[in-house]
Amino acid sequence: MMSNQTIADRTTTPPDEALPVRTAPGTGAHVLTRVLAVFGVALFGWMLWHSAANTAVFFDGGWTIALAMLGSIAAALLLTSVADRWMKRLPFVAVLLLATVGLRLAWVLAVDTQPVSDFLDMYAAGVSAANGDVSFGTNDYFSRWVYQLGFAFYEALLIKLFGNSLLMLKLFNIAFQAGTALVIYRTAALAFNDTCGKMAALLYALYVPNILMCSVLTNQHVSTFLYFLGLMLLIGRSFSGKAGWLFVGLCFGVGNLMRPLGSFFLLGFVAYVVLIRLVPSIRERKWPALAAKTIGVLAVYWLVQQGASFALVQSGVTPYPLSSQEPYWKFMIGLNPQTNGGWSYEDTLYVLQFPLGEERNRAELELLKERLRDKRQVAELFVSKTKTMWGADDSAPLWSMPDQDRPALQKKLIRAERIEYLTMALFGLIAMAVLAIRGRGSPEASLYMLLLLGYAALHVVIEVQTRYRFDIMPCVFVLQSFGLYAAYAVFKRRWGVSAAGG
Q1: What pTM, to 2 d.p., does this model score?
Q2: Partners of 324 in the β-ladder
Q3: Which residues contact 150 (CB under 8 A, 6 or more apart)?
Q4: How far apart are CA 470 and CA 253, in angstroms?
Q5: Strand partners, 145
Q6: N or C: which end of the chain has fewer CB within 10 A?
Q7: What is the tens place of the pLDDT at every residue in 305-314?
Q8: What is the CA 474 to chain-centroid distance, rounded?
Q9: Which residues contact residue 381 at a Cβ distance below 8 angstroms, ignoring those fewer than 6 apart?
Q10: Residue 111 in 3-state DSSP?
Q11: Which of 225, 222, 301 has the alpha carbon at shortest distance from 262?
Q12: Domain regions of the chain by residue span
């Protein structure tokens, strides 16, 4: 919170004090921060440029977009001022939870979203499992994507405990998003400062796709909460304690049972430890403890996966281990120029003619190699995919309203999402520029830059959907909050100079 110093005093605040941020120890960490921030400038600049082009499709003219953007920026700065000056932590948490839960509950009650596609397969499996029938484990869907069984049994547990109600499952979606909002608040506060934490969480609460997806029975609600809870524990004091590593490993392990992104977050975790935490630990002679905790996280994660896989196989639910039986599928789809790296019905029909196992994997690998032969086409596809992944409008309205003929409402929701996304891309660009110029930043911020950049790189080669942004958007909320705070600090100083002078 701000002190009670006078406006004239605040105008003399040195630049580094005006933008408080925990500093990563060591010259090497500063270099890494600067390198990551430069790549971050490129990514957020890409997001801003291509999302601006996409946004123009949904508005009547450039002036409309400009006015909407100015209104959004002004609203964000006003909220930052209110949060910084007048909202203590506990009242803010109350407001945050009220906004998060209230908006999502209103949407869930107003729009009757029925499960479709993969969500329907997992929900139907959950209903069957709750009734004691687990024969679905050997059907074609769960034989191909065995890792989806974890979420199906999560839904089965809720159905068993609370009855077969879509509303009840959606209420748990809201609960997990509320938990994620709190995690983002704490995370951004650790990475930067408390005001950044407040604004990161508040913008998460107000982000339209998050609200709409609460009525969709996707595994992303649970997994996102668990993965980012694990990251919050990692960068907080608890990881320095005796059992912090255990809870980090459990969060990543159970998160992977819900949605198979565990290997990605584990890789980010190891990169963070090696690149950011290792040198200070060597200097302070604490590296054996850090190495032991890192191994402990990996061991706990492995034990969770092996335990769940063993239980499912031994109970007769599935004959396969808890992993994808088609390791080349995502890459083969991601390199399909006909669908711009998106899901392909033709590819699905092609691979299903081969029996599951080595023969199908060979067929997918051969098609993958064939698509890699035309290097120019591959390069053009990578650029086109990245435009879509980080510039196109979010598909949340399609998933949340798949069978509802309400085009006017959909257009309004898309417009709102586009302006929010553009605003955050702008503040993200400012944040990365400030960190790149200063060359100093917190180790926590470097972790979230690593994850966001790694996720962007991964989706250059694998299947893309704008819905997949959901899984990494907490990194965007955390990082852009520093850009918003930087803009607010500049605005505050300039206003202070004017007031003091006159």
Answers
A1: 0.91
A2: 145
A3: 256, 257, 258, 308, 322
A4: 19
A5: 324
A6: C
A7: 999 999 999 9
A8: 4
A9: 335, 337, 340, 341
A10: coil
A11: 301
A12: 7-501
